[in-house]
Specification:
It is a single chain. By secondary structure, the chain is α/β, with parallel strands linked by helices. It is 39% helix and 17% strand. It has a three-stranded parallel sheet with strand order 1-2-3, covered by helices on one side. Strand 2, helix 2 and strand 3 form a beta-alpha-beta unit. Helix 1 packs across helix 2. It is elongated and about 35 Å long. It starts with 6 loop residues before the first strand and ends with a helix.
Length: 82
């Protein structure tokens, strides 16, 4: 039998409250991961920090993060906060 791993995706522009609530609900429901996609109006890595503050098991991931909008060092610093 094959197991299915479900993930939830949100736009990086989701508010911190929405990200935290979605992360808690996804973890409670047994989801495998929460993805945030970087958008012009929102930073996926900042949202993932919010999700990490309320989860322990849920895997956190981002879609594509365009480097043209911020220095690579800033992206590394954000990832280290996770």
């Amino acid at each position: 039998m094959t197991s299915t791993r479900l993930s939830l995706g949100l736009a990086g522009s989701a508010t911190p409250e929405v990200v935290r609530a979605a992360a808690r609900a996804a973890e409670d429901a047994g989801f495998h991961a929460l993805w945030l996609n970087d958008t012009p109006a929102g930073d996926a890595l900042t949202g993932l920090v919010e999700a990490a503050s309320v989860t322990t098991r849920l895997r956190l991931a981002s879609g594509v993060i365009p480097l043209g909008g911020r220095p690579a060092g800033a992206v590394v610093a954000d990832v280290e906060r996770l």
